Amino acid sequence: MINADTTAEHSDNTVVLVRSIADDFARASFAATDIKVMPYDRTAALIVRWPVAHARARPILLLAHLDVVAARSEDWTHQPFHLEEKDGYFYGRGTLDDKQGATALVMALLELRSEGFRPNRDIVLLLTGDEETDEHGADLASTQWRRWTDAEFALNADAGGGKFDAAGNLIGFTLQAAEKTYATFSITARNRGGHSSKPRPDNAIYDLAAALMQLSSYRFEPQLNEITRAYFSARQAHEPGALGNAMRSWLANEADGAAADAIEADANEIGMTRTRCVATRIQGGHADNALPQQASATVNCRIMPGVGVDQVRQQLVKLVGNAALEIRVTAAETPGPASPLRKDVLEAYTAAVRRRFPNAAIIPEMSTVGTESRQFRSVGIPSYGVDGQWIVVPQDQRMHGQDERLPVQALFDDVGVFHDMIARLAGQPAASHCLPSDCPRQ
């Protein structure tokens, strides 16, 4: 998977990869009618169904994506589209997002098949090809392809996972049950312009700059929901010092804005307490010797669950305080609700993780980034990010970045966690999958 350049520019490679994985399932005796290669746009998705004759419950849906963001070879120490193992790490684009998750799901299903596992409900695997760009595959899978993907709930390999600190202490494993909504706004200032030799106080660039300065210092009101309250309740139990105290203060008093601000100031907690908006692009003017007739900025927002996109736009209008500026939505997702914390999913994830990491904290999480869980939550299929990989922070936080990598053992733990979870949720608790000490290298 890593050796395939599955960026948007080379989506034909994604189609080839999808067909290759489909062949893997065919060789594992999955019926041809249960393996569906779904071409769409310039890419493809794979749907594999493991059916049962007399299901005792509705299906489980397993999610991951095969596409990756672009990577320039000249920026990397290692070749981004060539899997390299070095010093206990796998290097390559997608080792952390999200080919490790796709690999883990495929390997877990193939292992269960080879062991003679007999599920008591249908298991459906969905691998998409455009999560990093249009997410059209998830849109189709949650609507037009629903007859093949309908499920009681989904397990998403594109979220969750564990973190160790630099000293080797396990911080915990997160279970993603909510995520922020993505929305992009444009702020545009217009002016009659004129000759640069005759400058005036009214200036489109200055007006835009003033608006962006307002945005740079503004903080939306902090808010807790079921998922973030559970997250901070778990985090504060293991967080010493000022950050832990701030978490405890905010949990005790949601109106304690100073405590929420202190949490938000921590690099690992940015975006966890409120909606955040940030300027990401700017353009303006039309000539070096002319007063600008137009200046505009792109502002990207990650919006808390339950907050509408138009509510944020109205807040931006109020914040800017200049009726002459145009503020409009240029792109926005349909918000998805949070998923209820299902007891069976939480117990299965906890058991699978703690089989490898005894006493690990399992922490419900709201993602500040988007995943394809949103589309399924929006149509009534609760979705949970429960990836079994882990990293050491901050040095391994290289998602979308240079020299993306994953600890070698983390990949094998990921396979094991999904193996055990699927076995428990679609049959009986697993007892046969190897533990870290005796896992064979594959």
Describe the SSE topology.
Layout: H1 11-27, E1 35-40, E2 43-50, E3 60-65, E4 84-86, E5 89-91, H2 99-114, E6 123-128, H3 136-141, H4 146-149, E7 153-156, E8 161-164, E9 170-179, E10 181-190, E11 194-195, H5 204-217, H6 226-236, H7 241-252, H8 257-264, E12 276-284, E13 290-291, E14 294-303, H9 309-320, E15 326-332, H10 343-354, E16 362-367, H11 373-378, E17 383-385, E18 390-392, E19 405-407, H12 408-425
Parallel strand pairs: 3-6, 3-7, 7-17, 8-18, 9-16
Antiparallel strand pairs: 1-2, 2-6, 4-5, 5-19, 8-9, 10-14, 10-15, 11-13, 12-14
Keywords:
6-stranded mixed β-sheet; 12 helices; 442 residues; 4-stranded mixed β-sheet; disordered C terminus; alpha/beta; globular; Aminopeptidase; 31% helix; single chain
